């Protein structure tokens, strides 16, 4: 197995210089983990995001700035979810037979989804900050047109970075010499890490994670401080205040749970691969944690619909109206069915009525 190899390092786990120090790298468990988690994410993520797309496209009559960001987030999630069957096939067979182009596209869509999700969630957080902290001054800024422009800017930024990452790097390589079995998503050489990937990591960690994280924290803290002021209750009511607090908690929990572990570990992973951070123990820990944090990050496709529900009262009202319409329709159908049964019973029990019906047939 390629994932149980020996590699020589010049620094031991204790930081002492040694020669011929062998670091055993065994992360073969990741294929079973990826197969199980990605299969679950594909099923749940596809169902949830298709339901969200149906709500946005068919049942949501009133659209605002927040729903604009959410619709773009749904598109980002669905694009990634649709590539998961190819990844699952690869993790099961440990071979990529679909060609270099599809591998590069799959890598690009992974980064598009992750950092697109981060940026769209940040847009929602900033929009909520403007609406609550600066409700009057932000009216001219918070328009559907500006929301669409912000979404276009996010797509341009994310696609430019992710497509460069996916299509300029050698994402596929032969697993063994004189073999047709191929890698995908992994096994980048140390040369690639030092020349290209390290710069990519610095860029995406700064623009795609660190700045959005700080913005999310700042906006959430500012909103909480505003809600603590006495005039906030008179402006929105206690019920609104409770809903907003719930939005913030759900938003931050999902953001922190999905994205912080992966992006923090990615920095250490890059340091290990570029040999800036050495030591067998460090490398073993980073390589073991990386697949786990990646699975957690991918699960954001399943959690985003939860944010849609808790963040938008428009969506909540739309779902409530839809459920009430279904309940009313069921009640009407039951009432009609009961009336028909009663009518049939009256006809059967009344010989004159039955004779009249027979004679007119």
Key structural traits:
single chain; 361 residues; mainly alpha; Rhopdopsin 7-helix transmembrane proteins; 2 domains; two-stranded antiparallel sheet; 11 helices; 4 strands; globular; disordered N terminus; disordered C terminus; receptor; lysophosphatidic acid receptor activity
Description:
This protein is mainly α. The protein folds into two domains: 27-311, Rhodopsin 7-helix transmembrane proteins (Rhopdopsin 7-helix transmembrane proteins); 329-360, no CATH class. The protein contains eleven helices and four strands, in the order E-E-H-H-H-H-H-E-E-H-H-H-H-H-H. It has a two-stranded antiparallel ribbon with strand order 1-2. The chain has a two-stranded antiparallel sheet with strand order 3-4. It is globular, with a radius of gyration of 28 Å. The chain crosses the membrane at residues 31-57, 69-92, 114-137, 149-169, 200-224, 244-269, 289-311.
Q: Let me know the average pLDDT.
A: 77
CATH topology of the largest domain: Rhopdopsin 7-helix transmembrane proteins
Please give the CATH architecture of the largest domain: Up-down Bundle
Domain unit count:
2
Tell me the series of helices and strands, N- to C-terminal. Answer: EEHHHHHEEHHHHHH
Number of helical segments with 4 or more residues = 11
Percent of residues in β-strands: 5-15%
| Class derived from helix and strand content | mainly alpha
Enumerate the strands of the largest sheet in spatial order, edge to edge or round the barrel: 1-2
The general outline is globular
Instruction: Give the N-to-C terminal Cα separation.
Output: 81 Å
Q: Please compute the radius of gyration using only Cα atoms.
A: 28 Å
Helix-residue proportion: over 70%
The tally of beta strands, per DSSP, is: 4
GO cellular component, one term: plasma membrane
InterPro entries: GPCR_Rhodpsn, GPCR_Rhodpsn_7TM
Subcellular location: Membrane
GO molecular function: lysophosphatidic acid receptor activity
């Amino acid at each position: 197995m390629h994932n149980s190899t020996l590699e020589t390092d010049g620094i031991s786990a204790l930081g002492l210089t040694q020669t011929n120090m062998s670091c055993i790298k065994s992360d073969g468990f990741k294929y079973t983990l990826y197969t199980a988690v990605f299969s679950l994410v594909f099923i749940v993520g596809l169902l949830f995001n298709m339901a969200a797309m149906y709500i946005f496209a068919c049942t949501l009559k009133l659209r605002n700035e927040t729903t604009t960001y959410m619709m773009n987030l749904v598109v980002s999630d669905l694009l990634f979810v649709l590539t998961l069957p190819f990844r699952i096939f690869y993790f099961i067979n440990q071979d990529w037979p679909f060609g270099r182009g599809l591998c590069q596209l799959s890598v690009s869509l992974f980064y598009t989804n992750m950092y697109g999700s981060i940026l769209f969630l940040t847009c929602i957080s900033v929009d909520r900050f403007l609406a609550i902290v600066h409700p009057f001054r932000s009216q001219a800024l918070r328009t559907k047109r500006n929301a669409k422009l912000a979404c276009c800017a996010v797509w341009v930024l994310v696609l430019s970075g992710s497509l460069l990452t996916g299509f300029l790097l050698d994402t596929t390589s032969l697993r063994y010499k004189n073999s047709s079995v191929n890698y995908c998503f992994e096994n980048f050489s140390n040369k690639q890490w030092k020349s290209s990937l390290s710069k990519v990591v610095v860029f995406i960690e700064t623009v795609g994670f660190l700045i959005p994280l700080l913005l999310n924290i700042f906006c959430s803290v500012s909103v909480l401080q505003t809600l603590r002021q006495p005039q906030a209750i008179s402006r929105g009511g206690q019920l609104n205040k409770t809903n907003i607090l719930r939005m913030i908690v759900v938003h931050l929990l999902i953001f922190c749970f999905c994205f912080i572990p992966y992006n923090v570990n990615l920095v250490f992973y890059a340091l290990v691969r570029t040999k800036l951070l050495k030591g067998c123990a460090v490398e073993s820990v980073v390589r073991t944690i990386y697949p786990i944090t990646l699975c957690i990050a991918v699960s954001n496709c399943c959690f985003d619909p939860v944010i849609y529900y808790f963040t938008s009262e428009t969506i909540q009202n739309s779902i409530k109206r839809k459920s009430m319409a279904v309940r009313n329709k069921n009640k009407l159908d039951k009432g009609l069915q009961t009336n028909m049964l009663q009518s049939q019973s009256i006809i059967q029990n009344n010989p004159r009525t039955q004779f009249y019906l027979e004679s007119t047939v």
